[in-house]
Write a structure and sequence with these properties.
The chain is mainly α. It is 73% helix and 0% strand. It has helices at 3-31, 35-46, 51-76, 84-98, 106-112, 120-153, 158-180, 182-190, 199-204, 206-210, 213-240, 247-263, 268-282, 290-316, 321-324. The chain is globular, with a radius of gyration of 22 Å. The chain starts with a helix and ends in a 29-residue tail after the last helix. The relative contact order is 0.15.
């Protein structure tokens, strides 16, 4: 493939993605019939001295994604050392691709654009591990929140109440046990005969075996911190828009919303509507207005996803897509496996382990 042809295809791919991004996101925003009402609601509360809530929610956004970058770099480290700026661009690119894919699976495709082609599958494995870590936090908090709300909202039979009290912690413990044994799962996978068409993915499963127990738990801590940040953002925005619900019910309800978001594969924008329906059900006793929940969900979507997605769109425009996907050979065959560090990989050879 001639160089000019490669450049042309790179440009076509980037333009196609940018056009799809603008069309899909723009269509979803313009199709929102309550947009003007949500904006009026936003301005009304802005004038009441509640600006600090919006300010904190916005300031927490970069902290949230820096933690995700740190987690992904940590889980990539056994095979490839990702520089901070490289990791930030990868995370932002993944956000951009995730905006119009179910359950945000586009994140994986976005991140592999920022690592050499030989590490693409390992980047996906590291991302899947990070996602499982994040989902583990969502499932655990959601199960405990469900138990908390059920035990206080209805008169349950004694046997059923005891069953829920036992089931929620047991499920959380089982999930933690599975997570703690991810390296062993990676080792077990290597022992099975791999299908020919899954060869590269199967081999990348060995990356799991290299992740240490300490790295897994640190990644879990990053996930917990992220959860505390974006649940705090959501609670602040719900209060800002006038959701008058006791704080414990508000926090538990948010946990259940994130549990639903994790369990049901929906595109991010469709998920906004689903959240409002769940909120109405959970907080029906407090006469919560659906529009206020929808407005809070919409603005947290803008802060946490739409703004970083535009940065990711710009980041993707700077990469050689064909090269990072392996359709164009590079001149740098340097291995960056653990124990083989090189400044050619975008980090200092003296970076500490």
């Amino acid at each position: 493939m001639a160089r000019t042809t490669k450049q042309r295809w790179n440009l076509i791919i980037k333009l196609a993605f940018a056009l799809t991004f603008v069309v899909v996101v723009g269509d979803q925003i313009l199709r929102e019939k309550d947009l003007s009402l949500m904006w009026s609601n936003f301005l009304a509360h802005w004038s009441r001295g509640h600006v600090w809530m919006i300010g904190i929610a916005i300031l927490l956004m970069p902290v949230n994604w820096l933690l995700e970058t740190a987690k992904w770099r940590l889980l990539m480290r056994p095979s490839y050392r990702v520089a901070w700026w490289q990791g930030i661009r990868a995370i932002a690119g993944g956000i951009a691709l995730s905006l119009f894919t179910p359950n945000r699976i586009g994140e994986y495709g976005g991140r592999i654009l920022f690592v050499p082609a030989r590490y693409n599958w390992r980047a996906i494995v590291a991302s899947l591990t990070g996602s499982f870590s994040q989902n583990l936090v969502h499932w655990s908090c959601g199960l405990l929140a469900g138990w908390y709300l059920l035990s206080r909202s209805v008169e349950l039979p004694v046997a059923l109440g005891r069953g829920i009290e036992i089931l929620a912690p047991v499920m959380c413990i089982l999930l933690l046990v599975v997570y703690a044994h991810i390296p062993r799962i990676g080792a077990a996978v290597k022992g099975y005969t791999r299908p020919r068409w899954l060869r590269r993915f199967w081999e990348s499963g060995g990356h799991l075996e290299r992740i240490s127990r300490e790295e897994l738990w640190l990644a879990g801590l990053f996930s917990l911190c992220r959860y505390l940040i974006f649940s705090t953002q959501f609670v602040l925005l719900l209060v800002y828009f006038g959701v008058a619900v006791p704080l414990d019910w508000l926090i538990a309800g948010v946990a259940l919303m994130y549990l639903m978001q994790t369990s049901v594969p929906l595109p991010p924008f469709v998920d906004l509507l689903a959240r409002s329906e769940v909120a109405i059900l959970l907080w029906s006793a407090y006469a919560v207005n659906e529009l206020t929940v929808l407005a809070a969900s919409f603005f947290i979507w803008i802060i946490n996803l739409l703004i970083p997605a535009f940065l990711g769109l710009f980041a993707i425009s700077t990469v050689n897509v064909l090269q990072t996907l392996g359709y164009e050979q590079t001149k740098d065959p340097v291995s960056n496996d653990r124990g083989h560090r090189s400044s050619a990989d975008g980090v200092s050879a003296g970076e500490p382990r």
